[in-house]
Design a protein that fits this description.
The protein is built from 3 helices and 3 strands, in the order βαβαβα. By secondary structure, the chain is of the alpha/beta class. Strands 1-2-3 form a 3-stranded parallel beta sheet, with helices on both faces. The chain is globular, with a radius of gyration of 13 Å. The model has no long low-confidence stretch (mean pLDDT about 85).
Length: about 100
């Protein structure tokens, strides 16, 4: 699992565009439609937050991460940590919940 670079609350993200996608549960079709509409996208970084996702969705995202290793980062929680803690992990790193 590749983690996005951790930022302290005092740091600002680097200028540019990063797409963040938050997935929950095992909605493979929805995850697939969303991520296929984004990738490939000329190298724009994509952070995928997986909040208590099922095995099928997890396997799909892992395959995308392997296909686009420099573009796709994955932040994963096996249990539901809810939307805002997961978003903080995606934006600032895993110790930010």
């Amino acid at each position: 699992m590749v983690q996005p670079p951790a930022l302290s609350r005092d740091q600002k993200p680097k200028p540019g565009v990063t797409v963040c996608v938050l997935l929950y549960g095992d909605y493979l079709e929805l995850a697939s439609r969303c991520l296929n509409s984004i990738l490939p996208n000329d190298g724009i970084p994509v952070i995928v937050g997986m909040n208590a996702c099922g095995a099928a969705t997890g396997n799909y995202v892992e395959e995308l991460r392997k296909r686009f290793p420099t573009q796709v980062s994955v932040v994963r929680s096996e249990v539901n940590i809810h939307k805002y803690p997961m978003m903080r992990r995606m934006f600032y790193g895993p110790g930010s919940s």
